[in-house]
Amino acid sequence: MSFEQPKPDSKKYVDLINEIQKGIIKIPKFQRNFVWTIDKTAKLLDSILKGYPIGTFILWQTDERINDIKNVGNLDIPHTPEGVKVQYVLDGQQRITSLFAAYLGAHIQKVGEKKTVDYSSIVVNLGADINDNDEQVITAEPTGDNYISLSDVLNFMDRMTDIKDRFSDQDFKKIHSYSRAFDTYDFSTVILRKEDIDSAIEVFTRINTGGQTLTLFEIMSAKTYDEQQQFDMQVKWENFIKELKEIKYEGVSSSVVLSLLALLLSRTKECKRKTILSLDKQNIIDSWDGVVSALKDSVDYFRTTYRIPVSQLLPYDSLLVPFSYFFYQNKDKPNADQRKYLEEFFWRVSLSSRYSSSTESKLAQDIKRIDQILKGQRPDYNDIKVNLDSPQSLIDTNFSAGNSYCKAVLCLLAYQEPKDFQDNGKVILDNSWLKVANSKNYHHFFPKAYLKNRTVLNGNSVINITFVSDHLNKRKIGAKAPSQYMADFQDENSQVNKALQSHLIDLDGFGIESNDYDTFLQARAKLIYEELRSRIDLSHKEPVNEEVQELILAGESDTVEFKSTLRYDLRTKEVNKKLEYVIGKTIAAFMNSDGGNLFIGVDDNQNMLGLIDDISTLSKPNIDGFELHLIEIIKKYIGAGLMAHIKISFPEVEGTQICRIKISKSSKPVFTQYEGREDFFIRSGCSSQPLSREDQSAYERSHWN
């Protein structure tokens, strides 16, 4: 890469302002936010008034349109007209923004700040001596009684009559001379006219060594921005993260999507920095939706198959890359063999600290393994050493919330869907409660405060960690011995051992009654070790879903409903579209209430009918086709934006596969669309009931406020 040495140039103050107002001078989005204080702006203007050099503005002139800042504080930056070359600021953004704000006397609200800064408050102190280098003529606040707004000085010709009326002849002459000083000041400028975007970014990087370093994602966002195709990678990624936040997976970094793009689009199947930088812009734009869809599929797979409810528990977010690669190449759900091999891959990577270093090269190696899995072949892992020699290796592992190995163990614990000791309710995990070792969701089963004065080898062993709700840690357990607080829970919860088993703990044989910490560690480590080994040795099998069986046995209620079929009318022996609408309104009713479970393939008498009749009516007659059609029904009757509240699974009960739709409460009213009308349903007893507009309004106030 070589540059033609640019020639120095200059601009007048009014030219700078005019070119900003015409949309010619723009600030690229990879520049940092405006951060200068009003005092610093005042000093800049004071230097200009006194004729001091203030540094050179470096601008990149181009026909290209890259992502730029549309608004600074409350100042809108005008759009560049078609056919006009843009001059992007590579160096001098803080100074140019200061000059613009001061000229307009603007009110600026900086990013992350609540207060608005009034730049019209900058004044020129007429009593100050301009020849005294130690005295500042222009300040953020007056230093004497005789002063004028800087904005008036900069706009002298437009406001001359008013200024003449307000000031003495002597002051008027001084103000005029100050105005001339600003008008005639030459702002040193260098304009790069022939460089492409790669060269411009290189210039920015080299001259900005003391400031913000551009991330690879910022560079790629700038390179791929396309106004005509309405492609803005940064905005698209931010919108995707908002979607992920709804399902608690907002911790995924932008490097994941860049690595995935490179592995999919590059000829060499690498994701090194230079490979990413060389990717074709149009290929990225064309592939983006498919890549994001694959990322969504892999996130959903982690949440449902591995039951990892939040991104904070992922040993590495880079694990999403190979899984997303799989789902990009394979549009169907993984078959039985692929499912086993993917599980083995996940746990071998997670338990080997694999992506702790040289992640780019290891991802490239692992994509070859995913290619084998796509073909139904089991990869070899001779180069990956799993740190799981014995239960003792788990006991010896000190718990750290950020350690990938510990996170792998936590993923296993989350898979058990741990229950609350107090009431057997599900323990709710949240990213913000899992970031550090003393966060709300983590509990040392043998409390650290209890172990403090006892001689134990590792009170902070990962084997001593359980997931609990915040209130249990602080209010119910504290520093109590396990025998004491578990006895308290037994008084409140007759099923407490069932809750313990969901944490891979048992009242029997774990030393709880005798407060035997060593026995506890040995017993629990053995269980966890066996669970982890089964996933690596391909011997792990899904347990019978007791929760589903219990829900079905309990019968229909305000949180459970059974439907014999999705669309097949058992009476007429043909498809009945009205049955699909019933599914849609039932889901909406659960969302408008407190959530619940809808089972398809189960009749009112709790008989397992299965899904065969429905599947036989579909163009894609299999479980995947059933799920796709169900999703389309949901989108049709209640909208696509509510899928985050829905979890679809296909458990097997009594040897028959049924469909379970687990629905969470919506944060806002959900309406069903049917035959041109809009209805609002809620759960009432064992059925879904519509509400009138009047009743709906009252319900909304009580339910969501």
UniProtKB/TrEMBL annotation:
Annotated GmrSD restriction endonucleases N-terminal domain residues: 15-223
InterPro entries: GmrSD_N, Schlafen_AlbA_2_dom, Schlafen_AlbA_2_dom_sf
Coiled coil: none
Schlafen AlbA-2 domain mapped to chain residues: 556-691
Pfam families for this protein: GmrSD_N, SLFN_AlbA_2
Superkingdom, natural source: Bacteria
Descriptive protein name: DUF262 domain-containing protein
Lineage, opening ranks: Bacteria, Pseudomonadati, Pseudomonadota, Gammaproteobacteria, Thiotrichales
